[in-house]
Amino acid sequence: MKKDYYTAKSQDYFSNIRIDIVSLIPVNPHQKILEIGAGTGNTLVHIKENNIAGEVMGVELMKIPGSNQDNALIDKFQIANIENEDILADEEYFDVILCADVLEHLIDPWSAVDRISRYLKKGGLMVISIPNLREWKTLFKVVFKGEFNYQTGGGIMDQTHLRFFCKKNIASMLTTDHLEPLYSKPNFMLRVVPEGRKRRIINLLSFRLFENFLTVQYLFVAKKK
Length: 225
Fold this sequence. Notes:
Layout: H1 3-7, H2 12-15, H3 19-22, E1 32-36, H4 42-49, E2 55-60, E3 76-79, E4 94-100, H5 109-116, E5 120-131, H6 136-143, H7 167-173, E6 179-186, H8 197-205, H9 211-214, E7 217-224
Parallel strand pairs: 1-2, 1-4, 2-3, 4-5
Antiparallel strand pairs: 5-7, 6-7
């Protein structure tokens, strides 16, 4: 991962509270949660403030000055590249691990999933989101316009994305000796994503025939065996 591409982004890119991801976390005030790619730490602070977990830790590629990375509600925050640095925690320590739009940025996300899962307790959950390459606007540009242009501000074609996935590929990546997928859903289908309302209506009227093409991001939950 090239840090220069990330430092050029606005802080908004790193600061969204991932309510869609949080909505998939079982509420347990005693559980321990690790977030990979925690950005400014806003999602972890939200989790702590809402008593969803008793202990939270974040890992991010770089320091973001003036952000919640230093918030006292976050029990530990590590600056590290997870592709070549160990997480500073015991194995099988966390009940839930969050990877919200992280794996597509990695050179080898398959190895990263295997390595990250070592820090998950047996029976624990890994909650991830990944952009969907089959989304219709993206496909239209590639197939009909002949464009594979990268973007600087985010989205499916963000210039920091190194890997691209469809639903089947995500499920395959999360099917390992240690993990099994339990749940998958387009993020626009969640009621906590108000901007997905229009796509929910289209999906309903089209009898879900085009759901894969309406999906910008897939949400998955995998369980540690």
